[in-house]
Amino acid sequence: MTQLRGYFKDKTVAELSRQVRNQETSCVQLTQAALDAIHQLNPVINAFVSLHAGEALQTAQLLDREIAEGIYRGPLHGIPIAIKDNIDTQGTLTTYGSHLFRHQRPTADARCVAQLRQAGAVVVGKTLTSEFALGPTGEFSFQGPSHNPHDLNRVTGGSSAGSAAAVAAGMVPIAIGTDTAGSIRIPASFCGVVGFKPSHGRISLEGIYPVSGTLDHIGPLAQCVEDIAMLLEVLSASPIGRMQPTDEPRVAWVDPRSIHDVDDRVLAGCLARFHAIFDAGRSTVDIDALIPTAQSAFKTILLAEAYAVHSVYLQDESSHFSRELRERLAPGEAIRAWQYLNALENRKLLQGQVTKLFETVDLLVMPSTAILPPPFGLKTVNINRVEHPIREAINGLTSIWSLLGLPAISIPACIVDGLPCGLQIVAGPNQDEKLLAWLAALNIQV
Question: Which of 167, 397, 410, 415 is a plausible cystine mate for 188, CB 3.0–4.6 Å?
Fold first, then answer.
């Protein structure tokens, strides 16, 4: 659908930043370009749920005056950015995708938003999230679903649905999302952009409505790996390591079918992309023995922590919780303390085992999702002539890396029948910069 191409489609932050610094374009011009693209495309995509046009243009005018005075805040100076709607923005609507919070205007910015504003980014609006950021398809929000820019009849993936769609359609060059089970990497894969989940705790969760406190992550979506690295530098809660790899990474392919059945077309496309990118240092690694424990621990921790967050609302039948969300969270009520504690302990054991694995390999590679973006309304999906629940088919390959808190990125792998699918690359504990530097050094074209 070539008509769904906003101004920022295929434009990188590095390119735009150079233009701003050299006064070849102005911050106001970039902000207006974003607003124009949103007005043009959002009625059919539904990526944005609120727009901050007046505030954004005022901020851009201030940033232009700073440039004229020789003040340059860095590569995000004057760059339009979108913020997922489960992240607080001072004085502007933040609904968490729920009717319960449809009128809420937070009194303070989330920590990550404050950092972005300080760096000169211009917040143009809030992007659609699945209700309370729970939902891998991006179709369950009180503001309706986001539509995939590649095919409006298909889902974007979730829960950072609007953020991925906004970048994919070129409404903005960069956006911020959150990821608990794959909510950045899944929509990045389905929409054909780059999405990065950093190490757990690398970006502050202050001002984010929680899904699961020990599984939640914040991360960026963008057109290229280099833009992701710029955002990490601004948002990182710990010192940035300027680690430049001197050797090619030791790379291992993980057969995703040990985790979940995968569409043969997706598997073939991702394998071809893997071989095209990593022409040296390749091997395969077997993680089959870890999978059952990891899947069980993830499910227990997610349901227990998410139920604790929402228990008051779930017990109030009059609250405006969708049936979809009630049904998903209900099993959390039955989880006992010993089961939750055992799951936490199993996660520690798994993290130790995976840390040892990364002594012999630098990067693990597999598809981001087991399927292509599906049509709206499916509860199950046919994969190689076998029916699977849609939720597990979508987040099965991403959730274990959220459990382990490892840095993981989804980059575009290929197009199958006009639809994108992503390649997921995972690095060892706290190797965020090294992962991004390796990919940048490989000059990967996405």
Answer: 410
Assess contact for 144 and 235: CB atoms under 8 A: no
Q: Write the DSSP symbol of residue 290.
A: G
Least confident span in 49-63, 288-302, 309-323 = 309-323
What is d(CA 298, CA 303) in angstroms, rounded to the nearest whole number?
8
**Residue 317: predicted pLDDT:** 65
Which CATH architecture describes the domain 1-446? Answer: Alpha-Beta Complex (3.90)
Taking residues 194-201, what's their average pLDDT?
97
Distance, in Å, from the CA atom of 165 to the CA atom of 303, rounded to the nearest integer, reads: 28
Tokens at 338, concatenated: 């010993």
Identify the burial level of 166 via C-beta atoms within 10 angstroms of its C-beta, where 0-12 means exposed, 13-18 middle and 19 or more buried: buried
Task: Assign residue 157 a region (left: φ > 0; alpha: ψ between -120 and 50; beta: otherwise).
Answer: left
Q: Which residues pair with 195 in a beta bridge?
A: 221, 410
**In contact, 76 and 122? CB cutoff 8 Å:** no
Give the separation between CA 83 and CA 88, rounded to whole angstroms: 9
Question: Rounded CA gap, 45 and 26, in Å?
Answer: 27
- Tell me what pLDDT residue 376 has: 97
Eight-state DSSP code of residue 143: T
Q: What DSSP string describes 15-42? A: HHHHHHHTTSS-HHHHHHHHHHHHHHHH
Mean pLDDT of the chain: 94
- The greatest distance separating any two alpha carbons of the chain, rounded to the nearest whole angstrom, comes to 64
Amino acid identity, position 173: P
The amino acid occupying position 224 is C
Length of the chain (residues): 446
Helices 53-68 and 27-45 cross at an angle (nearest 10°) of: 160
Q: Return all residues near 186 (Cβ < 8 A) that are at least 6 apart.
A: 136, 157, 158, 368, 369, 394, 395, 398, 410
CA distance 178 to 112: 11
The whole-angstrom separation of Cα 389 and Cα 387 is: 7
Catalytic residues: 84, 159, 183
Beta strands in 104-236 (DSSP E): 122-127, 174-179, 194-197, 217-222
Burial class (CB in 10 A: 0-12, 13-18, 19+), 248: middle
Q: Report yes or no: 162 and 81 within 8 Å, Cβ to Cβ.
A: no
Q: Report how far residue 117's alpha carbon sits from residue 123's, in angstroms, rounded to the nearest whole number.
A: 8
